[in-house]
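Summary for the steering committee. One of the milestones for this cycle was to obtain a three-dimensional model of the protein with 2-acetamido-2-deoxy-beta-D-glucopyranose bound, which we needed before selecting residues for the alanine scan. The sequence and ligand used are listed below.
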Amino acid sequence: MRLNTAFLALALAITSVSAAVPHLDHAVHGVRSASGSLVDRLCGTIITPEKKAAAEKDFSLKRVLATAVAANNWPVYINVHFHVVAANTSIEGGYVPQSQVDSQIEILNKDYKNTGVQFRLDNTSRTINADWFENVNPYTSEATLMKETLRRGGPETLNVYTVSFDNGYAAGLLGYATFPSDYEDEPKDDGVVIQYGTLPSGNLYPYNLGRTLTHEVGHWVGLYHTFQGGCDPETGGDEVADTPAQAVPTRGCPTFRPDTCPEQPGFDPIHNYMDYSDDVCMRGFTPGQAARFRDQIRTYRGINV
Ligand SMILES: *[C@@H]1O[C@H](CO)[C@@H](O)[C@H](O)[C@H]1NC(C)=O
Ligand SMILES: *[C@@H]1O[C@H](CO)[C@@H](O)[C@H](O)[C@H]1NC(C)=O
Ligand SMILES: [Zn+2]
């Protein structure tokens, strides 16, 4: 699988490039404190510079420009299939109530307001499978089997899975996603997997306001992390002109905006959905990010935005 291979390749390189990818450290050691509470955001959507360069070359060749601004038919609705995977029918077992699923979709729509894209919950499936619940992460056969069993729709349909990420290499993960350009090679892998406690009113404070799904869907529509490529302009960073370069992911919610790339213009975009700040700290996408993702989903997902 392309995503898994990329994730693994970068993780194995951690000893030599750990300064550039500090968050991967947490992927190795997990991010839960001894008491079990989460101490740092961790997203599993990692892309190597090589894979990113290939994806961007492909995008520049195939790019179809979004047109809806002219057509004036915003918002375009993306159908969502939400898959609750649980160990048993208790909330600790991941069996989140429909009210939490519904309020998660509401948060998603609030966060994507004015981007041209909104989301409509098509169906919620519920599956009791303790193995999937505990062991799904970007490396496992459980993830493959879960998605092959539950996934619905084509490239235009968003499939969201909630699990616990309790075990394995990526224990402590908040979520991970596939990119639009991954769909062609790995259609069944397409979608977003998140920790069930990240839903609004979930138990994963300070990541329980629903912003993990906002962030992971950001990848699903074609955005990179704001700290992608660090300070080096040669890398193309996150391929968005109006998000300042950033050396490292943000932790918590700093009172003063740091400037981790002093040679580049702008302070770190700590309030951006594609950084790693606490949920309460996240406030929006930039116009450049929305413009990029509209082109991404028109090009690779056939969404007529
Ligand atoms: C449900 O699953 C969770 C997570 O594995 C476990 O902590 C809890 O004890 C289980 N509850 C019941 C009633 O089996
Ligand atoms: C909707 O979810 C139910 C389970 O709750 C499932 O049986 C059904 O197949 C799903 N429908 C679609 C269209 O995916
Ligand atoms: Zn991410």
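Key point for the committee: The chain has one domain: 1-305.
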